[in-house]
């Protein structure tokens, strides 16, 4: 059983503890699916106000649904399409306050209002994107972005 001490005093503390928990969860485990599955569970349990947390993998230049927590989602997303596809194409974090105002946004769950997508890159190559959705507009701020980039850096070593 895994039971992590994750303090939610403030966002930097929350993400520091979450990053440490993720590091210990993936330590010594080379299987990327297992690591993404545990990462999505850890994120969904510990970050408030999410309705979806998970991964799309880069399979031959197309994003394919990976391990996640939340409602069933679209399976394949071309690079350049929607928020995840924009992150995959540009290798830039996409932090979207209102997904309904984002051109080409793919509505997998009508409840989603804001979204944060972090590309996970190793040696210049896109491995996957980490996708977080919230039912609240502007749920993600710069501290969430920095915290999730740190989670992505841990994952880049083990995907
Ligand atoms: N809304 C995303 C699609 C993936 S789901 O949110 C799980 C997008 O536009 O990329």
TrEMBL record:
GO terms for cellular component: cytosol. It comes from the Bacteria. Transmembrane segments: none annotated. InterPro entries: FRMsr_CS (IPR000614), GAF (IPR003018), GAF-like_dom_sf (IPR029016), Phosphatase_reg/MetRdx (IPR051330). Residues 61-154 form the GAF domain. One of its GO terms (molecular function) is L-methionine-(R)-S-oxide reductase activity. Belongs to the free Met sulfoxide reductase family. This is Free methionine-(R)-sulfoxide reductase, contains GAF domain. The lineage of its organism: Bacteria, Pseudomonadati, Pseudomonadota, Alphaproteobacteria, Sphingomonadales.
């Amino acid at each position: 059983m895994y039971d992590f001490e994750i303090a939610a005093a403030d966002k930097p503390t929350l993400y520091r503890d979450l990053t440490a928990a993720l590091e210990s969860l993936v330590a010594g485990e080379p299987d990327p699916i297992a690591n993404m599955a545990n990462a999505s569970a850890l994120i969904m349990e510990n970050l408030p106000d999410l309705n979806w947390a998970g991964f799309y993998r880069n399979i031959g230049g197309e994003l394919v649904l990976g391990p996640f927590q939340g409602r069933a989602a679209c399976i394949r997303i071309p690079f350049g399409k929607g928020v995840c596809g924009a992150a995959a194409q540009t290798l830039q974090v996409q932090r979207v306050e209102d997904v309904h105002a984002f051109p080409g946004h793919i509505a997998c769950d009508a409840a989603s209002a804001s979204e944060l997508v972090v590309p996970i890159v190793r040696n210049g190559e896109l491995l996957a994107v980490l996708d977080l959705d919230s039912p609240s507009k502007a749920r993600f701020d710069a501290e969430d972005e920095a915290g999730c980039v740190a989670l992505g850096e841990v994952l880049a070593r083990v995907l």
